Amino acid sequence: MAILVIKIGSSTLTTKQGQLDVTNLTRLVSETAEIIKAGHKAILVTSGAIVAGCEALKLKEKPTSIPEKQAAAAVGQSRLMRQYEKAFEIYGIPVAQILLTRDAIADRERYLNARNCLSTLLEEGVVPVVNENDTVAVEELKVGDNDTLSALVASLIGAEALVLLTDVDGFYMESDEGVAYKAEVVEEITKEVEGFAGHAGTQMGTGGMVTKLQAAKIATDAGIPVYIAHGRTANVIKKIANGEKVGTLFKAKDKKPESRKRWLAHGLSVKGSVTVDAGAVKALSSGSSLLPAGVKSISGKFKIGEAIRIFNPAGKEIGRGLTNFGSDEIEKIKGKKSSEINTCLGFEASTELIHRDNLVML
User: What is the CATH number of domain 3-261?
Assistant: First the structure.
């Protein structure tokens, strides 16, 4: 048994006329029902609410302002869920609507509540249908796109695979001769790989290959393999569930971190960063906490308890964690020995800048 998180993009659910593609939605539901019958479990992260709302409101183009998007999403979400409910009902499978915003993932208690809810639904044979809560989300609460949301959901539930269904048949790279080719497997998402992402998006969607790579990075960091495949390929979900070669596979890191580490890695909004020396890199790699002595510089303004990035001397992000000091305090104690911290700050303080229990290496 495996849990698959399947993200269905706007382009996969939109006809050439800009309407909700109920035919393709029904086909994808049929494939999902097949893998559930085979013993797998599935969570759908679906776009399409705004498309369905635009159709109902007779809008020719996707809204641009937040109030217009919220109105279209409010009208379209119930229409979209009705189609999923009708399609799954044929197979005797109930569905549940889950609407999330960023704070439901960033807050540890709400994160655990969301995970427990999803786990219970899966155990009861229900297919959770997840979307961002566009009707209430303001900028600071938005995840931003359903590619990222699907990766966060996959990490939250500890899925065995994340499937990103879109309007291309995989991730394309270029040979040394400049010839484009579809990569069957991507071992690691490097700067070179990111350079091939381009900036293509669709009229009704919110992202392109860039957001899919960002999602793949989140999921693979969490030990979850990612597939990018065409959402109109026959039996695409079934083939992926059966381990067949479809689209592009982004390989996961060898070991799946435990739940709290996955949350630390990508569940939180990052407020700043520190750059550390080679000695600190070595210590962190062996499982130690981050001490102020290893910090060379800081960036951003942040408070105690907020999430920050950790960069090595070459400027590569190597970890994230919850800081025991604010940025102003770190300026005073960076590079200092543990015995000097209290004198520099004028009060008794922790010796760790980030304790290893609140730190995850990437």
Answer: 3.40.1160.10
